Amino acid sequence: MTGKEKLRKKIFSGGRVSPAEAETLFSWDLLELGEAADLRRRLIHPADTVGFILDRIVNYTNICEAACGFCAFHSGAALKPYELSLPEILAKVGELSALGGTQVMLQGGLHPGHQLGTYAGMLREIKKNFPAIYLHSFSPSELAHIAVKSSLPLDTVIKELQEAGLDSVPGAADLLVDRIRAKVSPRKIGKDAWVGIMRSLHRRGMKSSATMTYGMGETEKERIAHLAVVRGVQDETGMFRAFIPWSFSPGRTKLERMAPATGIDYLKVVAVSRIFLDNVRYIQAGWLTEGLKLAQLALAMGANDMGGVLTEEKVVQATGSGTKAGMAEFIDLIKNAGKIPVLRDSDYRIIDRRPGRRLK
């Protein structure tokens, strides 16, 4: 039996794949890899349901002192600086609430002038006016930044934000490889700090997600190293509800001469992630960055969630990339992929098995 045959047997029997074995998967034929990934998806998520949530991203400012090389959104890149007032933020949340949306993701940057009180005040006002809205907000780098600017321990910052209304934190990870981070985001936290923040969130009983931005000059071995960090934290904490990989969009960034990743790259990353991350139930299809057609194909490559449908998003849009879609497009896309569309909440619990009724 060849090494590939042994690995295929391990995958189909549900065995844990080593980093070295996972790296070889990138050389597999795409259809063969997709078959293996879809089987792994069925082992952890037997139903053919594909969920989505009604949410909104509120990018409340683009003033950010990190100035990452892969970002076109921060002021000083392609856009003028701006900052939403609290009434403007509340108006956006109100619009989502009126449409029946349930989750808001507040995203800003590493603002040089904001301390803990700014963020806690924002959370309290949103919860005061819209107590049913779930706040899945900020990022690990933002939490570290708040702690530094406020001269407070990280655990104290997380406790105060949670008590002010923060429900969970998206585990924006970029790429958890310090060689790449030193090149593209030297002012943001490193891999070990990201892991430390996940542990701090876990101590407060908070859930998160994990992301992966690839296509920034990393090797396939480094992609697997990123996944190994995520799998290790999940083994330790069980806190990740989902994993979301997406490709770097170079347009209008300092890295705009870098060739973008291909659709084949994306589908292989999704499939390898599903096979390697045997302890994460949901993998999102990155329709915002990859487009609806690739997202639909990803549903046959191990992905089983579509993320948010009413997303107001400006970070990806700033690169000149990005896709817009509504509930009708999501439902058709999922059905045409041979799957069952369901509306879910922030904890990935199904709240409507016939979401198409909401279109009437």
Task: Give a quick summary of the entry.
42% of the residues lie in helices and 13% in strands.
SSE topology sketch:
Layout: H1 3-12, H2 19-24, H3 30-44, E1 49-53, E2 55-59, H4 86-98, E3 103-107, H5 116-129, E4 134-135, H6 140-150, H7 154-164, H8 178-184, H9 191-203, E5 208-214, H10 220-237, E6 240-247, H11 263-276, E7 282-283, H12 287-290, H13 292-298, E8 305-308, H14 327-336, E9 340-344, E10 350-352
Describe the structure.
The protein has 360 residues and is α/β, with parallel strands linked by helices. The protein has a single domain (18-339), classed as TIM Barrel. The chain has helices at 3-12, 19-24, 30-44, 86-98, 116-129, 140-150, 154-164, 178-184, 191-203, 220-237, 263-276, 287-290, 292-298, 327-336; strands at residues 49-53, 55-59, 103-107, 134-135, 208-214, 240-247, 282-283, 305-308, 340-344, 350-352. The strands form three sheets. Strands 8-1-9-10 form a four-stranded mixed β-sheet. Strands 2-3-4 form a three-stranded parallel β-sheet, with helices on one face. A three-stranded parallel β-sheet has the order 5-6-7, covered by helices on one side. The termini are far apart.
